[in-house]
Design a protein that fits this description.
The protein is an all-alpha fold. The protein has twelve helices and two strands, in the order H-H-E-H-E-H-H-H-H-H-H-H-H-H. The chain has one domain.
Length: 231
C-alpha cells in the first residue's frame, strides 16, 4: 500500500503540543511507565500444550498482574533460545491485550503455528542487527519469518520491544509500534501497511520528534499518537 502523508510534520507536532499535551511533550519515563493489567488465567487456558508453561502464568501466579513497557524491555535483554522468545512474546502480547479475552485468543493463536518459537527468535535477532524496516519486511513477507495470525499491529510491538531499548548504536530510525490507534491519529488506513509505509512512519516520527521535542526518545511520538483513546 502506498500512501501520502496526510498531515505535515509541523501540523502533527502542533496538534499535540497545542491540544493533546498542552503541558508539553510526554517524556521517555512516561512511555516506559505505561502499563496495563493482564489476565494470566486467559493465557494459561489458551497456551499450546507442546510448549512449556512460563512461570508468569502458572496457577500460583497473580491473576491480574500489572505490566509496563519497561517490564517487557527488561525481558527482551536476555533472549537466546526459542523458549526465551516465547516468554518475551507472552509479555509483549500481555501488555498489548490486557484482559480482553477475544484479543488474547487471537494473539495466542500465533503460538499454535508451525515453528512459531523459532521464527520469533529469528525475527528478534534480525531487528537487533539495526534495520527495523528490514525486520518488518521479514515478518510481512512469506519468505522469511512470517507467522499466521501475527499481523503488523502486533508484530510491530514485537520488533519494538525486541530492540528499541538497545538501539542507541544504530544510525537507522528505531522500531516503533504501528497499530490501528496510531494510524487513526495520523489519518492513515488502519491496516495493510506495506514495508515502505512502515519506513515512512519511522521517518515521520523522527521528524516530528525533532520539531516537537528535540533530544527526546522517538517512542514519545508513538505514545502521543496512541493516547487519544486509552485501553
Amino acid at each position: 500500500m502506498e500512501l501520502s502523508t496526510p498531515r505535515s510534520r509541523s501540523t502533527t507536532s502542533s496538534r499535540y503540543s497545542g491540544g493533546k499535551f498542552p503541558g508539553g511533550p510526554p517524556t521517555d519515563a512516561d512511555v516506559r511507565q505505561q502499563g496495563f493489567h493482564w489476565s494470566t488465567a486467559q493465557w494459561r487456558k489458551r497456551w499450546p500444550s507442546e510448549l512449556a508453561l512460563p512461570e508468569q502464568i502458572h496457577e500460583e501466579a497473580p491473576t491480574r498482574p500489572y505490566i509496563t513497557r519497561q517490564d517487557v524491555f527488561d525481558r527482551a535483554r536476555r533472549v537466546e533460545t526459542p523458549s526465551d522468545a516465547v516468554e518475551l512474546f507472552l509479555l509483549m502480547a500481555a501488555w498489548g491485550t490486557g484482559t480482553k479475552a477475544r484479543s488474547i485468543a487471537r494473539v495466542a493463536s500465533v503460538l499454535h503455528q508451525d515453528r512459531a518459537p523459532e521464527k520469533l527468535l529469528s525475527s528478534h535477532q534480525a531487528v537487533l542487527e539495526g534495520d527495523a524496516v528490514e525486520a518488518y519486511r521479514r515478518l510481512y513477507s512469506r519468505d522469511h519469518d512470517r507467522i499466521k495470525h501475527f499481523g503488523p499491529a502486533f508484530f510491530t510491538k514485537w520488533i519494538y520491544f525486541s530492540a528499541y531499548d538497545t538501539w542507541d548504536s544504530h544510525p537507522a530510525p528505531a522500531p516503533l509500534i504501528l497499530d490501528k490507534r496510531v494510524a487513526e491519529s495520523l489519518g492513515w488506513p488502519t491496516h495493510g501497511w506495506s514495508t515502505d509505509t512502515y519506513g515512512k512512519y519511522l521517518n515521520l516520527a523522527t521528524a516530528v520528534r525533532d520539531a516537537w521535542a528535540p533530544g527526546e526518545a522517538t517512542h514519545i511520538i508513538e505514545y502521543a499518537l496512541f493516547r487519544p483513546r486509552e485501553l
